[in-house]
Amino acid sequence: MTRLFSLLLLPLLLTSVVHAQKKGNLNPENHPPFQWTKCTSPTNCTTANAGLVLDANWRWVHDNNYRTCVEQNRDGTQWWNPAVCDLGDESPGSSNNCTSKCLLEGAGDYRWHYGVTAANTTLTQKLVTRIEFGTNIGSRLFLLEKKDRYQTFVLLGNELSFEVDLSTVGCGVNAALGFVAMDADGGVERHRPWNEAGAEYGTGYCDGWCQDGQRFVGGRAATNKEGVKDSDWQSDGACCPEFAVWNSNAHSYSMSSHICEHDDYSPCNGPFCKPGYVHPEDRFTTPECTRYGCEYNPYRMGAREFYGKGKLVDTTRNFTVVTRWEKDRQYQFFIQDGKRIDVPAPIWDGLPKQSGLSEDMCAAQADVFSEIDHWLMHEGWTTHQRQVLNRPMVLVMSIDTADWYTWNTWLDSTLLVEDDMDRPGVKRGPCPWEDNEPWTAQAINTQAKVVWSNMRFGPIGSTIQV
What we know:
This protein is mainly β. The protein contains 7 helices and 31 strands. Its EC number is 3.2.1.-.
């Protein structure tokens, strides 16, 4: 799930004095209600009345004189406003000034501000939301168990089913659903005394891409610089294991597991967050996490007519995605028009003749696709079972365009323009490479929205009968 951002600035007021990352007290934080179904067997399912909370990265961050703390470029790069707070020498741990002065404000009206609408078992997330004060791009939401605690799930031995509508989600946009090894309290306990906002205000995000667009990392204001890119870019990030159930648009999708050096939340800084992208000369070093992980994308595996508009799984209409986490294999199938549609096996020599993630599939991918084997560097399947399958994970749902240096070519196009198009694994989808520029994707997807519904979780075979 890639970094998302908001251009929304709200002229709110604040009167309190702060000494740590705290909540604002003027805009109400009203979590949209959302219902999901918890199953213990095919005949025993109950409705869970839960809530949703917006990631802290979208919220208005301000000082006690209601001055905006965070400025932002069109491409999503952000920096702390020097007129409001001093980031110090921009080395890790030097950001106490911004941390103590800047507060997270409540999200207010989720629908009007962020394009998020929840009703019963259905959630809609719009890509572009235009309002009087600006434009919001995308959203990232976490499922709550209660007001100040995220709902957690253990994947092994279970399955997840949900219905999705991606008919308006075009090239360069990623509608994503997955699980990350976040702290259930949003990092309050881990990052005392700096984080006092917690899960109620959507704090503590991390993932297998070590997202370095975070405003707060480890409860403190994240290091970043204005207008600096490529090899000079310095920005704190947050890493943790991730199972990306569903990265998708109407043209392509993938499922992937991302393992890391550490088993849970771990901060990183600058090029150490993303070797091979920010610093290509470091591409053979071991990154904190496996950026692409072990992945299954049917288009990349050679099934070009399986998924998309008018194809076997027809994305012009709703369909159901079922994901099963067996011990030795994690796989998916679809249901559309009442029929089960299984995902095809790879066509490439050297890969198992079975879809989904398995020890053999994850061990063979790097060699077949001529890539650096970061999966093996992190001890592969053994780490995957410990970090991803057997620990509590937080559910995340989002819609976004990618940031300026990753784009979404990894999802629906080709990663690099100069790649050999005939080499196995190069084509990840049918989209033009140029459509993945974030500003282009936003311009051509102004009506894009993803609709999630009928989410069910429980032991394998309990959530759906086909």
